[in-house]
Write a structure and sequence with these properties.
binds thymidine-5'-phosphate; 13% strand; single chain; Rossmann fold; 5 strands
């Protein structure tokens, strides 16, 4: 099964994934964690270009296409082969990030972006997407403190508010695929909720 984690900046996805993976492995599942952009040698090189604070002149369309290039590579090199082998692939971000950030955030045409995503992924859609939802100012504050500031974090607060609203809109459009988790709660509560929704969905997919 293909599972993705999404959320606005500072929502804590990256800190939760290792514990979720450990929990699922203890339950006997074979889990392969990965992240976007990145997860392959080519993807990690693209990630550096996209996130480099020096590349301030990057046009939103160039940004959109770079994400799709990294995604096409990871889908073919990592995700599809692992899924074929029966593993659970757990990705820290995937195509919904492009709709949220480049579509809603940069206010580019979402229908065109969806076409690009279908091209990049060959139509691979996750079975479950967990949204770690968080107030934008709280999330950006966490990232500043952690000293993990990148070029996208430096976009305006309004940009990040559109990203969050975009995620919530996507949940409304496709409620069967999404699970919303309140990432403003204590870390342990967030982790327990995440474990619950992932386990439930694995159980359903096995039935
Ligand atoms: P993160 O891994 O620290 O969350 O950084 C990834 C950044 O890239 C984050 O700001 C969201 C952004 N992003 C997009 O804008 N579009 C995408 O398609 C993906 C995968 C990430």
């Amino acid at each position: 099964m293909f599972i993705t984690l999404e959320g606005p900046e500072g929502s804590g996805k990256t800190s939760h994934i290792p514990y979720l993976v450990e929990y699922l492995r203890e339950k006997g599942y074979t889990v392969f964690p990965t992240r976007e952009p990145g997860g392959t040698s080519i993807g990690e090189q693209i990630r550096e270009v996209i996130h480099d604070l020096k590349n301030a002149e990057m046009h939103p369309r160039a940004e959109t296409l770079l994400y799709q290039a990294a995604r096409a590579q990871i889908v073919e090199e990592v995700i599809r082969p692992r899924l074929k082998a029966g593993e659970i692939v757990l990705s820290d971000r995937y195509a919904d990030s492009t709709i949220a950030y480049q579509g809603y955030g940069h206010q580019q045409d979402i229908a065109q972006i969806r076409t690009l995503i279908t091209y990049a992924t060959g139509g691979l859609v996750p079975g479950l997407t967990a949204l770690l939802d968080l107030d934008v100012e709280v999330g950006l504050g966490r990232k500043r403190k952690a000293d993990e500031w990148n070029r996208l974090d430096a976009y305006t607060v309004e940009f990040h508010q559109r990203v969050r609203a975009g995620y919530l809109e996507m949940v409304k459009q496709e409620p069967g695929r999404w699970a919303v988790i309140d990432a403003g709660k204590a870390w342990d509560d967030v982790q327990n909720n995440l474990r619950k929704v992932v386990l439930e969905s694995l159980t359903v997919s096995e039935a």
